[in-house]
């Protein structure tokens, strides 16, 4: 059988194409998705001169591709699963239809080995997002399955360059091969950290930019565990958006705390002179680490940050606080230690955590009860109460929420999908339940997610 790629069809002019009638050509084109991802195993070099075996990617030959979409434009993404186990893909932060959200059993059957699934949706918001599996999540993400997705604004803000930075660790031994993805004793505490920090699957990469140019750095922390403090040293750098939502006023790119699942867009004005390098730095108690270096090259373009057009807020509805119902969620230990049930989406074999004292039973067909049922169109305040001495980046699918107040600190009024809940903190967030369906609600430290700290909210008419 002769197969035509989408490129062949669009470019035309090959011998085979002549055999197609116009009707055949049109229907062949209609069948091709805008994007396609193949989930596959591969060997790839992370450390110099060694191939890490058994990595996983959304491509057969290298790191997960950056998907670029346009706000308000429908897109289709074909995902084929070439692994020998089930998977499923979730689009983190996108407020799309429930059936396209990629959560096993809650929204779709897992994509089994050798099968494929077409996702189709229209992104309502612009910004920096990411995608990852929601099945055997700890192992598949640990092996590399975390990719970035960019939804472009309607109006170009005016950068010279746009650089997605996929920030994550891998747990590799000195020989460059995977070691155990986690330790149970850590899963019951803060989680297990990786051993090798990477950006776009590279250790401390260097990027060259025109001197004096304006660059949009898009940071996405796709790590399974690390809550980090980041800064840009050198150059003029301002945070312009967090978790895909523009800040009302840009702030300097210093002491920027990002937990697993979070993103930050930074406007960088590259220095004028070649010897003035800029770094993306992870600040750590036991020594800071430069994750990436940006080098000015050539004659200065002499651009200025104020030439950038401010980003427009995304159309996230504002909660009606005066009439909002308050719902409390308590994050803590698991009352009883039953192991989660086996599932084709894997289990770590332990239960340590719970929401409202109920531990998630595992990724199973269910049906299970939601943690709460919200009425479509109504406003809610979610009171997130952390009873534990560990921090939890709490993530809700399908709707964005606004940070209101904390019993521990002053909060910026951010709109987000992932909020870092500090140890013993109570955090109020507000939302409008405007997207019907069963929406996963969990900690994004994947060891916590997979050992009980998961549930879902139901939004219904
Ligand atoms: Cu980024 Cu339910 O996940
Ligand atoms: Cu998500
Ligand atoms: Cu957690």
Summary tags:
mainly beta, 30 strands, 6-stranded mixed β-sheet, single chain, binds CU-O-CU linkage, 40% strand, 461 residues
Could you walk me through the main structural features you see in this protein, from its secondary elements to its overall organization?
This protein is mostly beta strands and 461 residues long. The chain has 5 helices and 30 strands. The chain has helices spanning 6-11, 22-31, 137-142, 184-187, 446-449, and strands at residues 35-44, 52-57, 67-70, 75-81, 89-92, 116-121, 127-133, 147-152, 161-170, 196-199, 206-210, 214-221, 228-233, 236-242, 245-252, 256-258, 263-269, 278-283, 289-297, 325-333, 353-355, 372-375, 379-386, 392-396, 401-406, 415-416, 418-421, 426-432, 437-443, 454-460. The strands form 6 sheets. It has a 6-stranded mixed sheet with strand order 10-9-12-17-14-15, with no helix packed on it. Strands 21-20-23-28-25-26 form a 6-stranded mixed sheet, with no helix packed on it. Strands 11-19-18-13-16 form a 5-stranded mixed sheet, with no helix packed on it. Strand 18 and strand 19 form a beta hairpin. Mean pLDDT is 93; it is low at 1-29. The structure holds CU-O-CU linkage (C2O) and copper (II) ion (2 copies). One copper (II) ion is lined by residues 90, 92, 395, 397.
């Amino acid at each position: 059988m002769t197969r035509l790629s989408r490129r062949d069809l669009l470019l035309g002019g090959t011998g085979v194409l002549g055999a197609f009638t116009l009707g055949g050509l049109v229907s062949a084109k209609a069948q091709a998705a805008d994007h396609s991802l193949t989930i596959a195993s591969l060997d790839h070099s992370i450390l110099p001169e060694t191939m890490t075996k058994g990595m996983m990617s959304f491509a057969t030959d290298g790191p997960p591709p950056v998907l670029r979409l346009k706000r308000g434009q429908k897109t289709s993404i074909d995902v084929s699963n070439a692994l020998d186990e089930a998977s499923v893909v979730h689009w983190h932060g996108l407020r799309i239809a429930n059936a396209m959200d990629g959560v096993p059993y809650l929204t779709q059957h897992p994509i089994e080995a050798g099968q494929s699934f077409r996702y189709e949706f229209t992104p309502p918001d612009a910004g920096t997002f990411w995608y990852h599996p929601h099945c055997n999540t700890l192992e598949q993400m640990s092996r590399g399955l975390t990719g970035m997705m960019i939804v472009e604004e309607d109006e170009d803000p005016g950068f010279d360059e746009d650089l997605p930075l996929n920030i994550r660790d891998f747990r590799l031994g000195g020989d460059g091969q995977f070691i155990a993805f986690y330790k149970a004793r850590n899963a019951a505490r803060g989680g297990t950290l990786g051993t090798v920090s990477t950006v776009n699957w590279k250790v401390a990469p260097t990027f060259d930019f025109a001197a004096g140019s304006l660059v949009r750095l898009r940071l996405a922390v796709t790590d399974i565990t690390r809550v980090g403090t980041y800064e840009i040293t050198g150059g003029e750098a301002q945070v312009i958006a967090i978790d895909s939502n523009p800040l009302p006023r840009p702030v300097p790119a210093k002491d920027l705390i990002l937990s697993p699942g979070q993103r930050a867009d930074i406007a960088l004005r590259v220095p004028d002179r070649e010897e003035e390098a800029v770094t993306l730095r992870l600040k750590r108690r036991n020594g800071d680490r430069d994750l990436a270096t940006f080098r000015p090259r050539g004659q200065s373009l002499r651009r200025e940050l104020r030439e950038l057009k401010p980003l427009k807020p995304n159309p996230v509805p504002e909660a009606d606080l005066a009439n909002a119902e308050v719902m409390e969620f308590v994050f803590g230990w698991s009352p009883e230690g039953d192991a989660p049930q086996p599932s084709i989406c894997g289990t770590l074999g332990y239960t340590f955590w719970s929401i409202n004292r109920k531990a998630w039973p595992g990724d199973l067909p269910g049906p299970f009860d939601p943690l709460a049922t919200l009425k479509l169109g109504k406003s809610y305040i979610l009171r997130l109460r952390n009873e534990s001495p560990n921090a939890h980046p709490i993530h809700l699918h399908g709707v964005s929420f606004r940070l209101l107040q904390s019993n521990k600190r002053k909060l910026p009024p951010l709109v987000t999908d992932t909020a870092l809940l500090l140890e013993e903190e109570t955090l109020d967030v507000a939302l409008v339940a405007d997207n019907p369906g069963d929406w996963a609600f969990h900690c994004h430290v994947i060891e916590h997610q997979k050992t009980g700290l998961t549930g879902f909210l139901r939004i219904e008419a």
